[in-house]
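BUG: 3D viewer hangs when loading the predicted structure for this chain

Environment: internal workstation, default settings.
Expected: structure renders.
Actual: progress bar stalls at 90%.

Input used:
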Amino acid sequence: MIAEIGHFALVLALAVACVQAVVPLVGAERGERAWMDLAGPAAVAQLVLVGIAFAALTHAYVTSDFSLLNVAQNSHTDKPMLYKVSGVWGNHEGSLLLWITILALFGAAVTAFGGNLPPTLKARALAVQALITVGFLAFILFTSNPFERLDPPPMNGSGLNPLLQDPGLAFHPPFLYLGYVGFSMAFSFAIAALIEGKVDAAWARWVRPWTLAAWVFLTLGIALGSWWAYYELGWGGWWYWDPVENASFMPWLAGTALLHSAVVVEKRDALKSWTILLAIVTFGLSLLGTFLVRSGVITSVHAFASDPTRGVFILMLLVVAIGGSFMLYAVRAPALKTGGLFAPISREGALLLNNVLMATGAGTVLLGTLYPLFADALSLGKVSVGPPFFNSVFVPLMVPMVLAMGMGPLVSWKRGDLAGALARVKLAMAAALAAAIATWVMQGGSAGPWWAAGGIGLAVWLLLGTLTEIAERVRLFRAPLGDSMRRAANLPRAAWGMTLAHGGLAVLIAGMTASSAWKAESVQTMTIGETVTVAGYAFTLKAVRDVDGPNYLATEGTFEVAKDGKVFALVTPEKRTYRQPPRPTTEAAIVGTFLGDVYAVIGDAVPEGGWVTRLYFNPLVPWMWVGCLIMVAGGLVSLSDRRHRIGAPTRARAAAAQAAKA
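Structure tokens produced before the viewer hung:
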């Protein structure tokens, strides 16, 4: 009965979404305030109904209701409770319901926090958001019903993919979806602005917090996914340019460009058409990722479905949503006023360069991801595009972007002084050059990869350039310390957020460079008591035993790790075999230090005696996760800036009017 309530709630949500998509839109066109005001209650009702459906499916998983086909295919009574709950979105139907729930959540959030939005813009944005929801509700109801019954129900379920039976499943997909779907709100505001034919600084101020929130969630989601793959798959790496990894990375790149472009619209009333286009492209890439995951065109641990019918449906949704948006853009964008002019050497110019490089990078990743699919579809043969292509094409695009990031914030708006900016960052340039030379010498010159010195130099450049910019703002060392402290306290939170985000990226670059350039690994067969040394760490296999887990059997190895003759750590990696479904997984043992990770994996036993082991030292890998967290913290700090909250422009105008009267 609870499942039927959930199914009926989805049907009602579709009806409400249809009303929300039509009535406020017509009301905004006709100036009918009552019709426009319907958008808010409809968005809240939609969230309540979809929330009921999500709760009903969760209840079915928690109680192991195998009369539901979805539960029978993806759960098992022996699964720990955490994986029963997180298993709700560990499959196509459940993850799609999570997607729709987040869509409804963002619509309701605009209703709750958008009280000072212009009524027409708010009504149109919520109507567009509802149109997206209509498409996804139709998708789930007609092709992917999570409440489909199974008669007779089996005694037990088929279980969840063992790779997904990890705490990462509880956190990675929800944050990733909050990012993916969060960009739908920027898209809705962009389409609403095109319909109105008006894009101004106030519009940019309203759209930025939603874009920033989505960017924060997507950054955290990608970082969690990378970390999950790093410790779960046992290969010692953190990124493989998998098509579905790329599917999340592309909207992140476009969303980062959108975030910076919106700043130019807000500050200088320029790049309006470009910003609208970026909003469309960013959400379009999110939808493309959804298509790749659910269409069956790729084979990946990330892929949810292989049913061509579902792929065709979501491809139609992609064509209608993005194709229609591009048509509207082509018709209405030329009418948008161009706004303020600026010189190439200016803050706007630096942000535009950032946009162009980010967009080009996203295009490069898109080409590398889709080309094998097109080649296969056109019978051109099987083509593999892997890390060598992406590393050789994408990475060089990011080098000038990082160089510009270190100096761009020091250049003035409209017309900048390049010589003056270079003078202010001379210490950063000298330190970056010194770091690159020192890195080259320490790795033995040409004995190590030549690009490692450049990567460390770039990280130092970006970090010190970012600190130089904030020091210039507070006049550090050029004014009394107390005065500088007061200036720092009065800086907008967005300024501190930018400093943290750029500084976090510098830390991330250092971690990526070191872990890629100087990773040490050793693969061999070891017997009890045998010692293997990797990067100065001596791994001694002390014992191997069988472990009986809650729903798996495991071979657990115990390694004693010593450094300079002293015991450093005792680690216990596992090789698990799950009972249902009967699949093996690798559980790496990792000990993190400031300088890197000690990483051990135990594999299968060999007939000659002993076990296959993989031992790694991954330098500065923890810096990547710390860098990502600093970037997320920067986004949250910036999001807390009062100027970024919806309605802030209206309050500012009201305050100005009140001051004028006084």
